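Quarterly update from the structural biology core.
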Amino acid sequence: MAIDDLYKLDASATAAAIRSARITSRQATEAALARMDAVNPAINAVVHRFDAEALAAADAADRAVQAGGPLGPLHGVPVTSKIDTDLAGHATTTGLVAMKDVVVAEDGIPTANLKKAGAVIVGQTNVPAFCYRWFASNDLHGITRNPHDLTRSPGGSSGGAAAAVAAGIGTLAQGNDVAGSLRLPGSVNGVYAMKGTMGLLPTFNPSQSGEATIGLQIGASEGVMTRSVRDLRLGMSVLAQPDPRDPDQVPAPAVTPAQRLPCRVALWLGDADTPVDPDVAAVVRQAAGWLEQAGYVVEEAAPPHLSEMAELWMALLYADASGPTRDVFMELGDEAFRRSFQFTSDLLPAMDQLGHTEGWVRRMAIRRAWAVFFQTYPLVLTPTACVPPLPIDHDTIDRETMDKIIRAYRPLPLVAGLGVPGLTVPAGKVGGLPVGVQIIGRWFDDERCLTAAEVMERQIGPLLPVDPR
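Predicted structure, tokenized:
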């Protein structure tokens, strides 16, 4: 492969080529930066770039290869990190003008683990203000656009991360997810993205002024976006490395042979309260057919309380963002954030202290029902989102539009509320735009999700970076 085309390699291939000295980390990093020059002006995915810092890290990686010492799984590989994740020497802005000059001194757990694995971080990617929208724009860094159609949103909150990896800026992108922030951008940008079982991947930002809210502690997890399933495995394993700063991390159980065998799959294609676009449903049915060809038994079934769990999780998150937290949101958030936040707040059931407590109690009852359901169907297949990619800032139009968005995106907060693994696969297109299929598994059954994704990947074929259009 020509040096100028190295950006097309996935992380696994890039790491192997660097380890074997077929290419250098500097060459791979220069290719990523050149790709950034070529496509980032159109999509605005990377909002802070680190050319000199990245090239210095690449040179150090090349010296380590020459020295013959131990090399990490991402040694010398160019990647991006999300701008809500602490990166020493840079500002963790989370899309806020007020935070643009607040440089942090210490890496967060995800970026520390990327560096330990040898990755070269070439830039930070865009988000909405406070990472509290499904659309990636803010007053500080501007609008991020979907490389498949520059009039469409790349999703959020990890919209910049997904747009970057889809367009070939870095081999994989780090992100995080509490209501779909990995899986929605993965879906609408046509890449793979995974939110693992809650607790498997440690997380912490040293710059945070206090502890996270209950919803974030229980439901927010790290993850990666990639152009291959093998890179999902690689990236998730890197981010899963233990760190004492997260006392809630749990060790991954050993993979069993049964997790890599076909199983029964519940196919969900919407209901009266949560309709699915017919063309999106056709993509999901096609993906279900791929599983059937591989020996899976796929049956249409109604998982318990799907819409209720999605709405409950959103209500709990927004209840966490009331009182003094809401005051800070309204003060520091931009106009698009305030409009979206207000529309969503108006649509969700209000929770007083008793309602908040009852909500957490109800969540456990729903999780128990799903645990029983998983005994029959170890995997559930849904659309990642029930509609094709939406226009930029579509959530700022009016409350009625926001209501349709919340309904269309119910499969996303469902997974976070349950705490189970969810993986989006770029299974097809509608009107030329990517549509994802979501694989949901039991708690700690992440391997079963990845195995099913590999079955689909064999039908999809290799993913190459797209040119913005």
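The mean pLDDT is 97.
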